[in-house]
Amino acid sequence: MPRRVLVVDDEDGVREALRQLLEYEQIEVRAVASGADALDAYPEFHPHLVFLDVKMAGMDGLETLAKLRQLDAAAQVVMISGHGTIQTAVESTQLGAYDFLEKPLDTDRVLLTLRNAFEHVELESENLRLRASIEDRYEIVGNSKAVKDVMAIIEKVAPTGSRVLVFGENGSGKELVARALHRRSPRRDRPFVEVNCAAIPTELIESELFGHMKGSFTGAFADRTGKFEQADGGTLFLDEVGDMSLAAQAKVLRALQEGVVTRIGAPKPIRVDVRVIAATNKQLVEEIAAGRFREDLYYRLNVVPIEVPPLRARRGDIPILVERFVAELGQFDGLPPKRFTAEALDALSSRDWPGNVRELRNAVERLLILSPGDVVDARDVQQAVPTGGDSPLGEIVNVGTFEAFKAEAERAFLLAKLEENAWNVSETARRLEMPRSNLYKKIDKYGLSREQAAGD
User: Any idea which fold 312-384 has?
Assistant: First the structure.
């Protein structure tokens, strides 16, 4: 598709010179003599770039630029003037102009500006496509009442800036809720920063959240900004907040109360503007009773609670989720698309999915890889997804000796637990009450891997 450029200048000679130069470069050109004509032509012509004269009778270039940007916030405009001043250039830039050229126009400079502007347009378009693609991947999918109830709460609370505490089982979609809240908030164009509190060792969580200064502890070789600073003006998502140490909880509480954070080793605090959304799969009331979670922090975070339903409570959404995962895995992972029969979908819908949506996605990926042909049927589901979920425990009874049975049972148990915790070794070890070093040794012993889990 040819590039389109709109030329706006009240001098016939300038319009004609630019037309000839641009058409020689295989660019489609439309030339008009006034700001009013430019505003009329822009919506229909929809140019990739506008060359706009500053000094024109009637509506001048700066006023026209402001109105063009109202029509299209992404409009790319290059201002041109025979009476260029620094003040005019600054005003143009403040109004959103891409560049400023002085008359008489130099051909090489015009062509360089043209090339750079088109590259900028391409980059902007690619960013928009990538952002839309990413947002699609994080969209909450489902038509069940349970999902609609969650979405109704999100629509109400997202614009308010209130803190939200998201509850739900592992793999149920708590992160999707946090991202939906951010996308629908006034902070949507600011950072969304995620912290998995369960994945960061206790001794590093404070540095991760609040940052540190060079030399403040062994290994601090340079200053580092924390997640609170990185999320300034945007949203900070504290995933698995129930696994945060009491010391870190105290600092988070101060940050929420006072709006300031202090890097480790820093002499003074830094003010931050952050909306905090937290999530947990734990019963925090029980954690408070056991002395593992601060009650005052709980009430600071739990302004608006959102309960994410497990997949077994929304089985009617499984066919829609399967369709979405097939499309995603084809687009992003290059897996061949396959059609799931009604019987296959019924077989998937009959399972309890203890790993929830994450487990279902893993199962769909496995079926796309292992199922022969272009159609996935109920028999494929039965073979690749044993009854009871992803766990391969149902296969171990076929081994020959008791020692082999114990080894296979341990292997299957660890594989299932690693899958359940999204291969977070630290969190899996904590839940199994096993030293992390021991778990690493067993992973090596049995040769466990994500790829192996997908193929079991």
Answer: Helicase, Ruva Protein; domain 3 (1.10.8)
